[in-house]
Amino acid sequence: MRLFYAVFLPEEVKRALVEAQERVARYKGWREVAPHHLHVTLLFLGERSEEDLEDLLALGHRLGRLHPPFTARIRGTGYFPNEGTPRVWFAKAEGEGFALLAQRLREGVREFLGEEALLAGGDKPFKPHITLARRKAPAPRVPPVVFGLEWPVTEFALVRSELKPKGPVYTILEKFPLRGDHGREQEESAGKRSQDH
Hints:
Elements: E1 2-8, H1 11-24, E2 30-32, E3 39-47, H2 50-66, E4 70-80, E5 88-94, H3 96-113, E6 129-135, E7 146-153, E8 155-164, E9 167-177, H4 182-196
Antiparallel strand pairs: 1-3, 1-8, 2-6, 4-5, 4-7, 5-6, 8-9
């Protein structure tokens, strides 16, 4: 199974991004990402076995309990690579929670499955983004788009990606609510113990 962890977007944010995608439709050579596929990748895992799935689900639930919800923002667009001929046009995602959650996922995958499981994601610095379009042929750069989007991130997901001739098909295997209640549980447990004495 080809797997990754991701944050998907609420409908109102997707609608705004789809409007931006309409601009790229004017330029031949670009292929827009389907609205229901718009997401922020937290960690790409590549091909994993069925045996790994239980650990990856357990990690998602554990981090959901640890990590509080956070606010995400989208301000503008960019390209990968930034220099030369671009292959990807994306919206820049902001929010301190993205980097922390991605780091915790990397640490957890290393703990559960070992360093080898992180190789598929490469060693490039984590840059949260939402891919809007991919270049399928020589294509011009799309003019920048400025957004003022903001939304609460309250969950993330483990996703299976199946590569098809017309593009990848994503299936959400499980969602993990961000409850961030681990610290509170510890405090309540400590308080209860002190009352018992």
